[in-house]
Task: inverse folding
């Protein structure tokens, strides 16, 4: 009959009833129809077998340890009895944890379903279901509504983790890079949240440039990125045309694709560079993708060209800022800094300064502090730095304006309040930002006359304490404390017509406060005792 089920499907869907009674569970019962030694829950063992046992290999048998309350089978041996006998007790066991399961009502999860055996009748169906690179491992019988017609992968959501390849319809988002040599390899996938910049050499032929896929814009945008329930198309953000002499021109429109073609012995509209920009949510879903192209002309004498590729990631509703590591700081990259936003009575986020960097005074060739006002140099992680200038003081200078001018020279117009503990700390993660502790130290006065003295800042010292965070195999640099110390000195009023030159300095010192790694072993203790003279008898 037509409604007769397939015997192979019947075998696949029929499964033994799950055993939930702990009195019938026995994890040490390995031999079929034979008594396992010291297995007190083995139903094949008799009283004579139990009398020969020395212990119970499994004294307690329970079900799911995450249940709030359950039965437990306790097995023991009464060795004082003659002959020894097994003692069995069934007790109630309570889970002390507040995070426990009250009842397990999903019975199908209590056992594994037998896989369907391939037959000539169901082979094509199984091949369609399991023949691809990925498939849904959940059995069809687990569907609560078997009559619902849901298309495959309709509810599939692509939430990416750090470093996972960005998937597309065909395979993955390509980011060509040199592998063994400097030649381009298109098999390099773009990793999620991994900002990369690569350059490689591509072999070209002007006569056939219109047939080389890697020179066409379509090669980099014709495949959509797999995201949530929809697919994200890669849009063209901008197109820059580069001439043979290197001059670049930004096109006013990027709606029209420019494909490579041969014109007057030149290959025009060839892709020289691609810059991807991916926007994602805080849960790892890609919501937008754009590409900026650099197109150029290739002369017929050229046998190869250099292509550059770059990809960056930005979380939605956040301003893109350059990172200094992922996650830990990289030596030589700027220390990221920011301010506490005004109007927030509670930690809500941070606003960055113009360059999102911690800066110090930049030395100039003239060494004039007043001329150097506004010139700043970024503080690079791991680099101890010192800079300075000279200030010419005359009797006509007022104390308060001079002190404020020197403070602006040392700290800049907007000295940050916080620094990022990691190189990739986001502004909304307030716990990832370390406050800058500001100290003021006064030097000894050079005059005992307080009435004619003036306090002016002469140096700014920044100490950055950092530690190695994470595993010993791949430690990440993390900033834990920043101290900015302003040192002031007291100057007396200069006589009319007199001048004085004082040095003004800025410095940055990085201090590693990482704790030394503890050894994985402990030394044996020293035993200070005297052994008997015949302790090793009969050996010497």
Result:
């Amino acid at each position: 009959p037509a409604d007769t089920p397939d015997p192979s499907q019947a075998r696949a869907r029929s499964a033994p009833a799950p055993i939930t009674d702990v009195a019938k569970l026995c994890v040490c019962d390995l031999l079929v129809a034979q008594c396992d030694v010291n297995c007190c829950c083995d139903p094949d063992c008799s009283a004579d077998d139990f009398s020969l046992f020395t212990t119970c290999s499994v004294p307690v048998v329970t079900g799911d340890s995450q249940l709030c309350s359950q039965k437990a089978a306790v097995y023991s041996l009464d060795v004082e009895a003659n002959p020894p006998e097994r003692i069995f007790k069934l007790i109630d066991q309570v889970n002390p944890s507040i995070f426990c399961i009250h009842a397990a009502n999903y019975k199908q999860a209590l056992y594994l379903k037998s896989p369907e055996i391939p037959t000539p009748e169901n082979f094509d169906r199984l091949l369609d279901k399991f023949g691809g690179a990925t498939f849904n491992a959940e059995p069809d019988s687990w569907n609560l509504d078997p009559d619902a017609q849901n298309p495959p992968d309709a509810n599939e959501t692509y939430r990416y983790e750090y470093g996972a390849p960005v998937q597309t319809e065909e395979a993955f988002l390509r980011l060509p890079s040199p592998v063994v040599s400097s030649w381009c390899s298109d098999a390099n996938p773009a990793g999620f949240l991994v900002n990369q910049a690569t350059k490689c050499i591509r072999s070209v032929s002007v006569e056939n440039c219109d047939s080389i896929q890697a020179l066409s814009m379509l090669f980099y945008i014709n495949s959509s990125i797999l995201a949530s329930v929809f697919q994200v198309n890669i849009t063209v953000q901008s197109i820059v045309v580069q001439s043979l002499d290197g001059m670049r021109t930004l096109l006013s429109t990027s709606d029209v694709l420019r494909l490579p073609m041969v014109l007057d012995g030149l290959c025009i509209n060839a892709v020289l560079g691609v810059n991807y920009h991916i926007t994602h949510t805080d849960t790892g879903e890609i919501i937008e993708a754009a590409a900026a192209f650099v197109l150029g002309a290739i002369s017929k004498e050229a046998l190869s060209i250099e292509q550059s590729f770059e990809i960056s990631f930005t979380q939605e509703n956040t301003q893109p800022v350059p990172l200094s590591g992922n996650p830990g700081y990289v030596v030589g990259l700027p220390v990221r800094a920011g301010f506490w936003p005004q109007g927030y009575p509670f930690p809500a986020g941070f606003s960055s300064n113009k360059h999102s960097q911690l800066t110090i005074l930049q030395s100039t060739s003239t060494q004039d502090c007043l001329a150097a006002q506004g010139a700043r140099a970024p503080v690079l992680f791991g680099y101890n730095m010192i800079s300075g200038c000279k200030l010419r003081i005359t009797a006509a200078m007022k104390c308060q304006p001079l002190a404020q001018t020197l403070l602006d020279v040392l700290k800049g117009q907007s000295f940050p309040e916080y620094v990022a503990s990691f190189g990739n700390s986001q502004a909304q993660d307030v716990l990832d930002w370390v406050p800058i502790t500001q100290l003021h130290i006064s030097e000894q006065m050079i005059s005992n006359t307080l009435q004619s003295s003036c306090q002016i800042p002469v140096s700014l010292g920044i100490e950055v304490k950092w530690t190695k965070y994470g595993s010993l195999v791949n430690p990440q640099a993390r900033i834990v404390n920043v101290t900015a110390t302003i040192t002031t000195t007291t100057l007396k009023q200069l006589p009319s017509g007199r001048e004085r030159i004082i040095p003004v300095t800025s410095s940055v010192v990085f201090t590693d406060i990482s704790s030394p790694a503890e050894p994985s072993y402990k030394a044996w203790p020293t035993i200070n005792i005297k052994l008997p003279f015949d302790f090793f008898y009969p050996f010497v």
Summary: The chain has a mean pLDDT of 80. The chain has three domains: 22-109, 164-320, 323-512.
